[in-house]
Amino acid sequence: MIGRVIAGRYEVQALISEGGMARVYRGRGRQDGRAVAIKVLREQYAHNAEFVARFEREAQAVARLSHPHMVQVYDHGRDGDVHYIVMEFVQGDDLKTQLRRAGPLPEERARSIAAQVCDVLEYAHGEGIVHRDIKPQNILITPAGDVKVTDFGIARALASTTITETGTVLGSVQYLSPEQARGLGVGRRSDLYSLGVVLYEMVTGTLPFDGDTPIAIALKHMHARPPVPRRDGVRLSEAVEGIILHALAKAPEQRYASAAEMRADLLGNAAHWREPRADVEPTSVVSRRATGRTLAHRRSGAPFVIAGAILLAVFGGLAAGWQALNAYLNVPEVAAPDLVGHTLQEAEDAARAAHLGVQVTQQAHSATVPAGVVISQDPPSGTTVKVNRVLALTTSLGPEMVSVPDVRRRSVEEARFAMEQALLGVGELREAYDQTVPSGFILAQDPAPGASVARGTAVNLTISKGQETFVLPDLVGRSLDDARRMLQDLGVTLRNVTQVPRDDLPPGQVVAMLPAAGTQIRHGDAVAVTISARPSAAGGEEPPPQPIVTGTPPAAPASSGPASPADRRVARIRLVVPEGPARQTVRIVVIDQQGVHVAFEGNLAPGENLDKQVAGIGYTVVQVYIEGRLIQEIRP
Fold first, then answer.
1. Distance between CA 240 and CA 103 in Å, rounded?
2. Does residue 96 or residue 64 have the better pLDDT?
3. Catalytic residues
4. Least C-beta-crowded within 10 Å: which of 130, 321, 342, 487?
């Protein structure tokens, strides 16, 4: 990630910290240069669609919050396979780091930090946001000593997971409320319980509940009474001890009703901690607030009372521990059903019938398993598990869809590389002639560029063979119309036509051609022919016009005149002189049985109209030239 630019806006510079759920990097906004913190979800969460959707909803909600003691969320989203949150960058350390480095904090400092956390919790709770993961790692301390609470909303996204499913929850089990450890719903007072644990750790340097395994710690949160903070010589006021024990009540309704109440006690403005609570009466400071009569009675029978209390506490603790352990160990067992190949709904129904639960922990693309169908499960089917165990499922996202790149007009090697980069394959290779695409380059592809197809799909390619060549047929001896038709059938246009006087051949017959017959030519090559024409009646010969270019369609012939309707051919020429020189030479040439003669020749200005009727005898060809270039050819 170091050096990567996320969403085109944030440059990742260095790793700050990492936890079970995410890594946090220091970054820089590319537009304003502002230092930011970028939290990137770990892969196991980034591929869990349900988790990501819940996480994004919570991130949107938290992004709308703003409080001086809350780390501000600037942006969040997804860049490829990276899900990220961009937050305010806070100079300083988290509270856990400070406790490890300096040990327990002075009471006043601990009360100040906890009061600031209460301040931000009261604000968030008022906006309907419960943190769910208050712990020293999420409490940042600025160089000025101010508190910044982070990770609002992220813990909520984790709320549906159990303590056996994610490393993040396991890593925070020391701060879980009893209702969270039981997997029950949590509310505002759960945050206050976690803050009570943090306050306990700040003033004593130890945790109230610890153990060798997360399960053991969770059981203590659910069943064991919190140790009295003022033990082992810890110098602590009665008020702070009362605040801690009041916050650590097992039942949520016995804790502080709000963060504002706890803040008032921390600042010394109230004493809600003095309210009696049965679950801590034997060890709390409340038990030390007795009347003189009770104290005198205790003094008179102190040895017996103390001995009895110790025995009662020992036997009570053993009984409670045995009951908790027995309840944990002696759970009915069932065989895990086979959920692979079933839809998620079918898997949930089958698990429910077996008194089990399911949780989608991962989603993966599959070319063979339809979307929404279970690919694998953990533990596998047939495994003996305890009732109410949650089975981890991996479901299919269906085939991974990718976009087909455009490889047209690229070489075959470039096309193969582009397909590999797009996670596609190369299918059938075909060849075809083309006038414009050079030989060896891609002429066409199927599927078309931009199409969305499954990963690994084979794309068929058509490779250009360049322009097609063929043998030019012999046109000599054919009429001009036949020669033109033959060339059109081959895809070649007759471009150059010249005339030569011949009295031994009928007018309009091809007497020569260039290139010669049998030459290999390609589409678009120029072909010129020379046709016969009768000499002029005066005995002189009209010099043939210079080679000209044809191609425009002939005009419709006019109706024949009254004289010799069978032999007389009439054509009407209409044209507008195109843009060009100031004066352009326009010439109309008639080729008929009488030979070649000029029917019109003149210099016309651009834009000037010409409307001319010409006639010929027998087979007639009328040609119109502008500046020596043939622009129209008519056969009336």
1. 18
2. 96
3. 133
4. 321
From residue 248, give the alpha-carbon distance in Å to each of 213, 266, 280, 320, 498: 21, 15, 9, 18, 110
> What are the tens digits of pLDDT across the range 128-155?
888 888 999 889 999 888 999 988 755 4
Query: CB of 198 within 8 A of CB of 114?
Result: yes
Give dist(CA 121, CA 127) in Å, integer.
10
Q: Which CATH architecture has domain 552-636?
A: Sandwich (2.60)
Least confident of 21-35, 113-127, 328-342: 328-342
What's the pTM? 0.45
Type of residue at 568: R
Question: ω before 447 within 30° of 0 (cis)?
Answer: yes
* Beta-strand pair 527-533/469-471: unpaired
Q: For residues 373 and 463, give the distance between their C-alpha atoms in angstroms, rounded to a whole number.
A: 41
| In contact, 198 and 205? CB cutoff 8 Å | no
Q: What is the pLDDT of residue 191?
A: 92
For the segment 51-95, what is each residue's pLDDT rounded down to a tens digit?
677 667 667 767 778 899 998 888 888 888 788 889 889 888 889
DSSP state of 353: H
Q: SS3 sequence, 121-136?
A: HHHHHHCCCCCCCCCH
pLDDT of residue 402: 87
Distance CA 635, CA 610 (A): 19
Domain spanning 401-464: CATH 3.30.10.20: yes
The identity of residue 444, as a single letter, is A
Residue 241, beta-bridge partner list: none
Question: What is the pLDDT of the chain when averaged over all its residues?
Answer: 80
Q: Which residues pair with 569 in a beta bridge?
A: 616
For residue 156, report the phi and psi dihedrals to the nearest 5 degrees: -65, -35
Burial class of 260 by CB neighbour count within 10 A (0 to 12, 13 to 18, 19+): middle
* The two three-digit tokens of residue 569, written as one number: 């051919």
DSSP state of 509: B
CATH 3.30.10.20 at 333-396, yes or no? yes
Q: Do domains 333-396 and 468-533 have the same CATH topology?
A: yes
Whether the CB-CB separation of 352 and 35 falls below 8 Å is answered with no
**Is domain 96-288 classified as CATH 1.10.510.10?**
yes
**CATH fourth-level superfamily of 5-88:** Phosphorylase Kinase; domain 1 (3.30.200.20)
Residue 497's beta-bridge partner residues?
529, 548
Rg value, the chain, Cα: 47
**562, 571 contact by CB (below 8 A):** no
* Domain chopping of the chain, boundaries: 5-88, 96-288, 333-396, 401-464, 468-533, 552-636
Q: What is the rounded distance in angstroms from the CA atom of residue 199 to the CA atom of residue 245?
A: 10
Q: Which CATH architecture has domain 468-533?
A: 2-Layer Sandwich (3.30)
Alpha-carbon gap, residue 352 to 202, rounded angstroms: 44
Contact between 117 and 149 under an 8 Å Cβ cutoff? The reply is: yes
Tell me the per-residue pLDDT of 247-277, one tens digit each, with 9 for 90 and over: 999 999 999 999 999 999 999 999 999 876 5
- In sequence order, the 6+-apart residues with CB closer than 8 A to the CB of 406 are 445, 449, 450
- 367 or 38: which leads in pLDDT: 38
State which of 59-63, 164-168, 615-619 shows the largest mean pLDDT.
615-619
pLDDT at position 234 is 67
